[in-house]
Each structure stands twice: as structure tokens, then as C-alpha cells.
Amino acid sequence: MNHSLMGKVIIKGQIEVKTGMRIGGATGGLKIGGLDLNVITDPEGKPYIPGSSLKGKLRSLLEKKEAANNPYFWNVNDGKGNLSGHKCESNELYTKCPICRIWGIAVSDKITVPTPTRLLVSDSYLDEKSITQEMKDNLELEYTEVKYETAINRLTGTALHQSFRQIERVPAGARFKDVELIYNVFDEQDKDFLKHVFVALELLEHDYLGGMGSRGYGRVAFNSIEVFWNKRENYENGEIALIPERAINKDLGTTPAEIVQKFEELKKRLAG
User: Fold this and answer.
1) Assuming Cys at both sites, which of 73, 81, 100, 211 could form a disulfide with 67, CB separation 3.0 to 4.6 Å?
2) Residue-level pLDDT at 36
3) What pTM, to 2 d.p., does this model score?
């Protein structure tokens, strides 16, 4: 199995928040008047999406999809006898597994081939222009809203004692710019596995990002996607393609679903 770098696929775009989203940060509850549950913010106090949150969610969704056709997929336990994950147990299984190939696993006595991660995911930062003046007029904080929640006694229909809480959320309509996923290609088979990255993005659009998704939080959409292919030689010659005119998906769509539908054509453009 070849593990010399052939090139990198750069996936750029933006994330649009469809319903209020909360990716948790440090609690503000210790401050007088502080919120019970805060969102994570950058040093300037603006909400952002950590690359680790996005990458972890994409993996989780794709794992569940793969497990649907494989009853033996979940094979890692948490030390307490509970199944908690997946890890290929042979070189042969590894070569066919989109999870272990894309996200990487540690080399062991059972896995002896190199297993580097293919996927790198960057933090994504708030596009301040997406928070319009009309939105600001109805926000409790500069960039975020506060949602009030309480637990209900399901027999009486009344609020439970001391269950009232304030939850900070990024409002619907906010956009996060500079979304960037970098996919390393080490061999021709990696080009086939790239499709799973776009499938995972599709799955996330019909799931949620952050916490409390079962209550309606965290629906997002990926749009304005641009895909670039930089071969090893491009880096050696300083000919890196990152301008819109050189995107290889120009006529193939700009959403995950559109790219999945035309992926075979996209793959043909990963030549060399």
C-alpha cells in the first residue's frame, strides 16, 4: 500500500445555521446574571465551530451508516463491557473501511500498514455580516440569542421546581465562513473514499451539530462548496489552486447532495 502523498483535495464552503445551534463553551453560571449554558467563543467573544466538533460528528454519522450493514461493526468497548466504537482488526479490513481509512487508527500488532488520517477539519468562524441589524434588534446578546427552558412534570403539565434555565444559542440565519476540509490522497483508492466525506456532510444536514438536537437545535446546511485538487507537483511548483475559477466542481453543484450525485465525474477530475 503506497503512502507517499499524491495530492490534497481542499473542500471550502460555508455553514448556514437553520435552527438555533449550541456548541458548548465555558459556563457562565458562576457570574451574577450569567447564563446556565454558554456557546463556545473565540478570543473576540464571537461564536465559532471547532473543527473537532465538526470532524467528530461527521465520523459518528458515517459510523452509524456503515454499522447498518455490518452486525460486527461495533467492536471497541469502553473497559466496562459496553461497545463504544469501531476499529479494524486486520490489514485487509482496513483497506476496505471508509472510517479507519479516512479518520486513521493507531498501528498495532494487528494493523501493520501505515494508517495516517486523510481528513483534516479547520475551525469555522462567524460571518458577522450574516447577523443582520434586524436580527441584532431581537437578540439578547451581541451575536447570540438566549432560549429559556424548563422541565415539565408530564403528569401535571407544570414546571418542575428549580428546572428553569437559560441557554445561549447561535441564531437561525447565522453563517460560518472559511469552512475548510483537507483530504490527503495517498493512493488511487483514496479518491474513491472521498465520496464518503460528502455523504457524511449530507447526513449531517439531516441530523444536528452541537447539543440538544432532539429538541430542534443545530440543524445546518452546507453551501457554496468549492473543491480544489492540488497534486504534489503543484506544491513543488507553487501552482496551488484555491481560486474559484480553478474549482473542479464548477458545473457539478455546490451542495453535498449535488456533489454526491455527480461524484464519478468529480473523481475523473482528480487526475494524475
Assistant:
1) 73
2) 65
3) 0.90
